Amino acid sequence: MTQALQPVAFSRCGSAATSFQRSVTSSLAVEEVVARLKQGIVAADLWILHEINPQMLLNRGGFAIGPARQVLFFHPRLMTRLLAADSEALLEAPLKFAVIGFPDSATELRWIDPGKAFARYGSPALTELGNELAGLCEDIVTGINLEGT
Fold it and tell me: Which pTM was predicted?
């Protein structure tokens, strides 16, 4: 007999997270947002490094969550700039988008603001790269049309 999974609910992006995260909401299904997101990442000349399925992983651990995916992305040309600016910032790469599905059929796309994350190191070159990456993330999200048309 299989044991019931323990449900765990997602919360919406809250006020504390807005100081360092960005988010947009869509009526598209999680899988459609992920597909468009991957197309946008590739179109921005970045590499998709990995896709994580937290729903599947938590299920294996005995927990039930709604649909969720994490898409990790970066590019070697960006990594060399990051390392040259401040190798302590290695932990900031790769960048990641999280796509979360809610019971009301809304899908939320979230990501850490690289401009804010990279600025913490106090390196002008790293701050510049972080701001550039923040703009790139915004361009990807804007370009993938999450309105559903």
Answer: 0.92
